[in-house]
Fold these 2 entries.
Entry 1:
Amino acid sequence: MRILLGVTAGIAAYKVPFLIRLLVKQGAEVRCVMTPDARDFVSPLVLSTLSNHPVAIEFWNKETGAWNNHVALAEWADLLVICPCTANTLSKMASGACDNLLLAIFLSMRNKTILFPAMDLEMYRHPTVQRNMDQLEQDGSIIVPAEYGELASGLSGQGRLPEPETLLEYILGVVASKRDFLGKNVVVTAGPTYEAIDPVRFIGNHASGKMGLALAERLAERGADVLLVLGPSKCSVSHPKIKVCSVVSAEEMWNEVKNNWDSMDFGFFAAAVADYQPERASQHKIKKSAGESMALTLVKTPDILAWAGKHKKEHQRIIGFALETQNGEVNAKEKLHTKKADYMVLNVPVENESGFNAETNKVCIFGKDDRLWDIPLMQKREVANAILNVITNTQ
Ligand code: CTP
């Protein structure tokens, strides 16, 4: 869950550091954007320390030369939360004004925006403010009404920002609107496997683990309890609903899947598992003096997906991933049937835009009964959501 937290110049901004801590504890990645005047109410240093990211304030930082790209920030976010949202920012947003970074991000957002207006009671009930909130709601933003209570002015009435725990509940409620994997146990294999030749050398491949990780994160956000069996990978993941089990070889990956398979509802086999391993790994480093040439005898590794297909129970669903350099469709369909998968996701090569280390991916999904879903080139995290949508819509 990637949350862009917009902070505007209201006294209630003092609650934002607490909110960031709660969000981070939930496994969210948080980035803050402030309007310039918001700095008078809460320190950017506090927000950047708690969110672990620099705070974006201006389009252009004249001292460092850094450019905050509003489009990239908007694309990054699953959710834009503006908290607190002042009458001034509401008015600018309702009219489409764009004179600061936060407003430009708001206009660039494709995902949802939640607004937490907070101000003094007369301001809050002023017809122009009410009209702006109605307009923004009509335009698709989610407006969380301010609470009644004691206000910074000393007056009492509606205008108060909810306490951080309540803000968190609202945000999680919006994120959780799609909880179609709630209560499901899912195993995801990801990354490459390394098959040892000797203590310092191995047979491996270029898989990064990004696609499997994106799947694990989306599944967890949609309610699943995920066991991520991850081969050697630079990627890291932290989400309370993802248990990471790091492995090295195909054999180790297979053992983890076997030991946990009975309790699973779904298996996503996104790992690029080595097909062969050296028949015997040398105990000691093989020396150059061994000869002018050398032959390595390789034997097949266990096919983890095929094993799961063979041991699949009625309620279990299996999703495989095929990487082909030729005859993609024919081979993917064949793998779907021979490995007894329910879906086979074929990676479709798009120059520089898809494959191991790219952030984007283009896939086709093959289902049983010759069904086909063609998913356009998208960010891997969106591809993961599209795959999950296909599965839940065709159960
Ligand atoms: N797979 C697996 N265990 C293996 C090999 C593959 O679980 N030992 C799984 C992969 O995780 C993937 C699917 O099988 O979900 C297809 O992998 P792929 O490498 O495309 O196919 P292979 O079966 O290895 O066949 P080939 O390499 O000949 O294309």
Entry 2:
Amino acid sequence: METRVLEPTAEGLRVAGQIVRDGGLVAFPTETVYGLGANALSAEAVARIFEAKGRPRFDPVIVHVASPAEAEALWSEVPPRARALMERFWPGPLTIVLPKRDLVPDIVTAGLPTVAIRMPDHPIALGLIRAAERPIAAPSANRFGKASPTHHEHVLEELSGRIDAVLAAGPTPVGIESTVISLVEEPPRVLRPGGTPLELLREVLGELRADPPLIRGGPAPSPGTMRRHYMPRTPLFLLEPGLPEEGWERLPRERCGYLGFTTTKRGFRYGEALSERGNLREAAARFFAVLRKLDSLDLSAIVAEPVPEEGLGVAIMDRLKRASQGIARLNAHAVWIKRL
Ligand code: TXA
Ligand code: MG
């Protein structure tokens, strides 16, 4: 199959909408990351998503809509606090999980009785949903386990020849996936931290559960929150906060890459800071692209500096922990790794 690269124009949207209506796959930008979209009301079309991504099994995918009313047509129950969240955060990086209606195929929800829905804050995503005249089911447009794509070039690197088209609209502004919240539980529970900070959700909901997603063993509450979800080829180690600078001497820096927050460190073969001015929004927007770059350099290891766990920093740290093999610590004699 040849993958068409479509301009993000009215004509591009018309062609993409037709592909979705015909049961095909179109990768498209959202404000968070690129999604791999199919008609959410067709089980066969959604099955193609899993083939293209090479997912070993069916995970539930997010359904994208162009208005709250379209979401309400897919949920069987809409409590007042769902309306309050949609009012405050849509369009935007917040995915809401509620009981589904029968018209949502089981493959979309991997057999769960609930469906996760969001309204993206991106003109091309909304334009595609409108052009397709259907809700669009879409996971992130990467091969299974890989970093989420924040540019159409990332999509083409992994999925060219496996999907019908990509709407080529350049980088995505938020850069980290949506926050997923379940309103089926009491109190509501954050299943995945993401582009909508927990602090803002608490303003609307009051009490909120946000358990750390790193659960050893047992079924994950939300499959995408699996411990090793992002798998860079290069082993990545998260540095213990507050490491003394002398410790650097003991790392094989000439073979390692450094993923810093505000600064990089001397002696590493390659280093990059996510945001020199310490802005978490900028750091989130650049995170996956920087990780991809470091992973492409054939380094022995990537060492990553923690970011502050507040605002979007919670989502960045979640991704870093799930991409990492453990925490690197230094003492007087050696570098040692504590497995997470
Ligand atoms: O920002 C985003 O959310 C991007 C863009 C494309 O919208 N999408 C995305 O999709 O990150 P994906 O498939 O990579 O992650 C979807 C997450 C997974 O953690 C999945 O387990 C969870 O949402 N999810 C989907 N449906 C669910 C459901 N019914 N119950 C619980 N979790 C669900
Ligand atoms: Mg994903």
